[in-house]
Design a protein that fits this description.
The chain contains ten helices and eight strands. The two termini are 38 Å apart. The chain folds into two domains: 3-69 and 113-285 and 365-476, Outer membrane efflux proteins (OEP) (Up-down Bundle), CATH 1.20.1600; 307-340, no CATH class. The chain is an alpha+beta fold. The radius of gyration is 46 Å and the shape is rod-shaped. The longest helix is centred in the N-terminal third of the chain and has 67 residues, at 116-182. It has a four-stranded antiparallel sheet with strand order 1-4-5-8, with helices on one face. Strands 2-3 form a two-stranded antiparallel sheet. The protein has a two-stranded antiparallel sheet with strand order 6-7. It has helices spanning 3-12, 33-43, 45-66, 116-182, 189-222, 249-256, 261-282, 343-349, 368-434, 440-476, and strands spanning 71-81, 85-86, 93-94, 98-112, 287-299, 303-322, 325-340, 352-360. A hairpin with a 6-residue loop joins β2 and β3 (93-94).
């Protein structure tokens, strides 16, 4: 069979598999493009890092939301005093060993602080939403890299197959020329030319195998798999059918800027920077804080006076005259004693409560409000400029993608026609060469032209597939 016929049959066989196996992959012994993308997303550390950054941002938002609630704290102090000290219960000086204990609860709530907590929560919520789009951006990057590596492997496989066909045709031509030389039909130098062409084709075959190994290694690295892993890839369906979709670059950009995650993330960060300006301005407002406290205490030195039922005679300072004789006045008084107050009774008796509201009015704070407001305004302008750069880069990327897609499609169509014409030219040259009407140089030139055009057609085919899928990616936001 002629080389072009064999090559076209190979290219048209979309179900052909590259016979290798994947013992390390549990899902299947074959991988489609979609499976490769899923595997790359699961294995790439950059995706896991983006997800962790997203979780950190979400946790920060939740922390700020909870910080708006009042704070409740409890405390307990235990003391043991030796030597000369002040009794905290009576405030008298004593040399006794005293054990003390205080317990209490405190509640603090910031009622107003220039909307600082509110604006902080809004700013962090916007940043957290942007981090979600950062994860999507990282996934899109990995997806496009996987697509490129996948198509490079398919291209290299087709080039190896085409090179095998070229070697087999060249080998058959050498054998045919040897027979013609032996029969005296053609001069010996035609055999040398045929062997030279065979050597060139064999060298090209070795090069295509090297390129295939390099392409496979690139795909393994994108999938984050060991270089010793063997892959079995299934070909794309319908890659020979041209796309019939209007490729208006501006229309695609108008739609893409509403769905592409990098643009949405940049817009959210611009809004977060605007909240930063509100935060800086809020420093000039008063702040109101409400505090409530409850506490009680215990002291081992605490005593209370107790009167007993027994009475004792006590001499007073008064006197009475009886028959001219003065006698001191004596009375009966109950006995007074000191009794220790138990722990829980002291805690109940010594309770104290307080409710306070404090207002802080900033008057002069080193012009911090002015400088922070200026910095926040600059940060906002920087975020707006960065968002504009993201949109500009997206527009330029879409312009380039559409231009490359159109060029790839035109190049493929031109090469397709060129292969058809060169195949007819080669068929005529082969017939004339076999009839002895054409020298080996012209025959080899016709074969080389066809081989080169066939290889270019294979490369152009996958280049067109890549460019069309990139344009579709920008058009719908996914492959």
């Amino acid at each position: 069979m002629k080389p072009i016929v064999i090559i076209l049959l190979i290219l048209g066989f979309s179900g052909k598999l590259w016979a290798q196996s994947i013992p390390s992959l549990p899902s299947s012994s074959t991988l489609t493009l979609e499976q490769c993308i899923v595997l790359a997303l699961e294995n790439q550390p950059s995706i896991r890092q983006s997800v962790l950054q997203q979780q950190l941002a979400d946790n920060t938002v939740e922390q700020t939301r909870k910080s708006q609630l009042p704070t409740l704290s409890g405390y307990s102090n235990q003391g043991l005093n030796f030597g000369r000290n002040v009794d905290p219960y009576t405030n008298s000086v004593t040399n006794a060993q005293i054990t003390t204990n205080t317990v209490g609860l405190g509640v603090s709530w910031t009622a107003f602080n220039g909307f600082q907590l509110k604006n902080t929560l809004l700013q962090q919520s916007l940043t957290a939403q942007a981090s979600h789009f950062d994860v999507a951006t990282a996934k899109n990057t990995i997806t496009l890299n996987t697509l490129l590596a996948y198509l490079q492997v398919l291209t290299a496989q087709d080039l190896v197959t085409a090179s095998e066909v070229q070697v087999s045709v060249a080998q058959a031509q050498v054998e045919r020329t040897e027979k013609l030389v032996k029969s005296g039909t053609t001069p010996p130098f035609n055999l040398y030319d045929a062997k030279s062409q065979l050597a060139n084709d064999q060298m090209q075959y070795v090069q295509t195998q090297t390129n295939l190994k390099a392409a496979m290694l690139t795909l393994l690295q994108v999938l984050n798999l060991p270089s010793t892993t063997t892959l079995q890839l299934i070909r794309l369906e319908g890659t020979m059918i041209p796309q019939k979709v209007t490729t208006d670059a501006y229309q695609i950009f108008t739609q893409a800027r509403t769905v592409m995650p990098e643009v949405l993330a940049a817009d959210l960060r611009t809004k977060a920077a605007q909240k930063g300006l509100d935060l800086a301005r809020g420093l000039a407002y008063p702040s109101i804080t409400v505090n409530a406290n409850w506490g009680t205490s215990y002291s081992s030195a605490a005593r209370r006076s107790m009167y007993s039922t027994d009475a004792v005679e006590q001499t007073t300072t008064g006197f009475v005259d009886v028959a001219g004789q003065s006698y001191p006045v004596k009375v009966l008084e109950p006995t007074l004693s000191a009794e220790r107050i138990n722990y829980f009774q002291q805690l109940d008796n010594n309770q104290y409560k307080s409710l306070t509201m404090s207002i802080r009015i900033p008057i002069l704070n080193g012009f911090q409000v002015r400088y922070r407001t200026t910095n926040a305004r600059l940060q906002q302008q920087l975020a707006e400029s960065q968002a504009e750069s993201v949109r500009r880069n997206l527009r330029q990327a879409i312009d380039q993608a559409v231009n490359q897609q159109q060029n790839a499609n035109e190049r493929y169509q031109a090469l397709e026609q060129q292969v058809i014409v060169l195949a007819q030219s080669y068929k005529a040259a082969e017939a004339r060469y076999n009839a002895g009407l054409l020298n080996a140089v012209d025959y080899n030139l016709a074969k080389s032209n066809l081989d080169r055009a066939s290889i270019n057609l294979i490369q152009a085919r996958y280049e067109r597939v890549l460019r069309e899928k990139v344009v579709d990616f920008y058009r719908v936001g996914t492959l």
